[in-house]
C-alpha cells in the first residue's frame, strides 16, 4: 500500500527519540536567549562578527556544499562572517569535548551526532535553545528526527542532516548474475552474493564499514533489531549477549567465513566502503545517503549510472534501518549566540535544504508531501520512504553511550577477527555495561 513519507514518519516517530539527564545554568536561566555583546567601531558602525563552525568531512553535505551555503548566508547577513572547520567523524566528538572542557571556546556552532546530546547537555557544553524554536520548527520537522537533540524536555539544537543507511547495489552485476531486483531479506542478500561470486563477477560481493569505530555499531544495531534482539534494556542493562542478538553477530561472522564480505571490511570506514564500491569492486555496500550522489558521479565513480539504492533487507523479525541523523548546536562558550542562531536557522531552512536534497534529504515534512519540489532523485526518495518507516536509533538514551560504544567496538573487532568467540566477547562486554551503569 502506498503511503506518503509524512504518514510513514509519523508512525515511526517514537523509534528514534533519546532523552537523558541535563544540566542547569546558574545565570541566565537555561533556555533564555542571550544577546550577543554589542560590536561597534568608531562612530558607532557595527563591526563584522566572525562565527566559527565545526562540521564534518563527507557528512551528507559535501565540504563544497557547506561552503556554498555559508557564502549565501554571508551575502544575506553582511555583518557576519563564518569560518568552517571540517574534521572526520571519528574526531568530531573529541574535538567538541576538548574545545569546551578546556575552556578554549573556539567554536560557536557545532555539528552534533544524535548520540551525543545527553552527554553534552549534562556536561554543559551546549546551550538550551528551547525558547528560540519557531512554530514551524515545532510542527514542521520530520517526527523521526524532531527530538534527536532533546534532553529532559529541553532542546539543545536543530536537526540538519536527515540520515539513515541504505543498501547500495550494482545493477549491472545483479543483472549478470540473473537478478532483476535487489534482495528483500538478509538471506536473499547472501544468496545473490553467492551467485555473483560463483559466476566470477566480483571476488567479494559485499563491503561493510566494520572497522573499530562508530561505523560498525551502525551496521550491528539494525542487524540485531532485524533478528528480534535488543542491545540495552530501558534501564540500561545488557540484552545483547544471548538469543537473537547473539545470532545476528554470528551471521556477520558467517559472511566473512564464506568470503562474501570483503575481509577489508573489518578495518573499513564509510569512505572506504564508498571507494571500494565506486571502483566496481563490490556488488553491495551498506552506507549513508551521501554515497548515492558520489557513486553516481562519473568524476568520482567508475560505476556511475549502475548504482541502485534500496532499504535495508529484513531479518527474521523484520526490516530495520539505523538512524544516523545529526543537528546543529550552539556552544555554551559562544560570545555570539544570536548570530549563531541566525546561521542555524538559515542552514536548516527548507529553502536552503531543498537545493542540496541529493546529498541529504530535508528535515521538513513538506519536502516529502511533494517530492518534485526538492532536488533529489526519485529512487532515493522512494527508498527513504520505506527506510524511515522502520528506523531505530542506537541505544543513545543512556548518558554513557559513548563509553559503551567504544567498548562494543572492541568486542565486535575481537569477534570479527576471531580473537574471541562471540559468546566470550559479548559476555565480557555485558560485564562492562554493568560497571557503566553503576558509575
UniProtKB/TrEMBL annotation:
The keyword Transferase does not apply. Keywords: Signal, Transport. It holds the Pfam family SBP_bac_1. SUPFAM superfamilies: Periplasmic binding protein-like II. InterPro entries: Bact_solute-bd_prot1, SBP. Residues 1-18 form the signal peptide. Belongs to the bacterial solute-binding protein 1 family. This is ABC transporter substrate-binding protein. It comes from Caldinitratiruptor microaerophilus.
Amino acid at each position: 500500500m502506498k503511503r506518503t513519507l509524512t504518514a510513514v514518519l509519523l508512525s515511526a516517530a517514537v523509534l528514534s527519540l533519546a532523552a537523558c539527564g541535563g544540566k542547569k545554568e546558574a545565570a541566565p536561566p537555561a533556555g533564555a536567549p542571550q544577546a550577543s555583546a554589542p560590536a561597534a567601531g568608531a562612530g558607532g558602525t557595527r563591526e563584522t562578527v566572525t562565527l566559527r563552525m565545526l562540521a564534518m568531512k563527507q557528512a551528507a553535505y559535501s565540504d563544497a556544499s557547506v561552503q556554498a551555503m555559508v557564502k549565501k548566508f554571508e551575502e544575506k547577513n553582511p555583518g557576519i562572517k563564518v569560518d568552517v572547520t571540517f574534521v572526520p567523524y571519528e574526531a568530531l566528538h573529541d574535538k567538541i569535548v576538548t574545545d569546551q572542557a578546556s575552556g578554549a571556546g573556539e567554536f560557536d556552532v557545532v555539528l552534533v551526532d544524535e548520540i551525543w546530546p545527553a552527554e553534552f547537555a549534562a556536561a554543559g557544553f551546549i546551550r538550551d535553545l528551547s525558547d528560540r524554536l519557531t512554530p514551524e520548527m515545532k510542527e514542521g520537522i520530520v517526527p523521526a528526527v524532531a527530538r534527536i537533540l532533546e534532553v529532559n524536555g529541553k532542546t539543545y539544537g536543530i536537526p540538519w542532516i536527515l540520515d539513515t543507511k541504505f543498501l547500495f547495489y550494482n545493477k549491472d552485476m545483479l543483472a549478470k548474475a540473473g537478478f532483476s531486483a535487489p534482495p528483500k531479506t538478509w538471506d536473499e542478500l547472501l544468496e545473490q552474493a553467492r551467485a555473483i561470486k560463483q559466476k566470477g563477477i566480483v571476488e567479494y560481493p559485499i563491503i561493510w564499514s566494520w572497522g573499530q569505530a562508530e561505523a560498525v555499531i551502525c551496521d550491528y544495531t539494525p542487524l540485531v533489531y532485524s533478528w528480534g534482539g535488543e542491545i540495552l534494556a530501558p534501564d540500561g542493562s545488557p540484552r545483547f549477549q544471548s538469543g537473537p542478538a547473539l545470532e545476528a553477530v554470528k551471521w556477520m561472522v558467517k559472511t566473512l567465513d564464506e568470503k562474501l564480505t570483503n575481509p577489508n571490511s573489518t578495518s573499513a570506514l564509510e569512505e572506504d566502503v564508498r571507494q571500494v564500491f565506486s571502483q566496481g569492486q563490490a556488488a553491495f555496500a551498506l552506507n549513508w545517503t551521501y554515497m548515492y550522489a558520489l557513486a553516481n558521479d562519473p568524476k568520482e565513480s567508475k560505476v556511475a549510472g549502475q548504482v541502485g539504492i534500496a532499504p535495508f533487507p529484513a531479518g527474521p523479525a523484520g526490516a530495520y534501518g539505523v538512524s544516523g541523523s545529526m543537528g546543529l548546536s550552539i556552544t555554551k562558550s559562544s560570545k555570539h549566540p544570536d548570530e549563531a542562531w541566525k546561521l542555524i536557522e538559515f542552514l536548516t531552512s527548507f529553502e536552503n535544504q531543498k537545493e542540496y536534497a541529493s546529498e541529504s534529504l530535508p528535515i521538513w515534512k513538506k519536502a516529502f508531501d511533494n517530492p518534485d519540489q526538492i532536488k533529489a532523485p526519485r529512487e532515493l526518495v522512494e527508498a527513504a520512504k520505506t527506510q524511515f518507516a522502520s528506523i531505530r536509533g542506537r541505544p543513545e538514551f543512556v548518558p554513557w553511550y559513548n563509553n559503551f560504544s567504544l567498548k562494543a567496538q572492541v568486542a565486535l573487532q575481537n569477534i570479527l577477527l576471531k580473537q574471541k568467540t562471540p559468546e566470550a566477547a559479548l559476555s565480557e562486554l555485558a560485564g562492562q555495561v554493568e560497571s557503566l551503569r553503576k558509575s
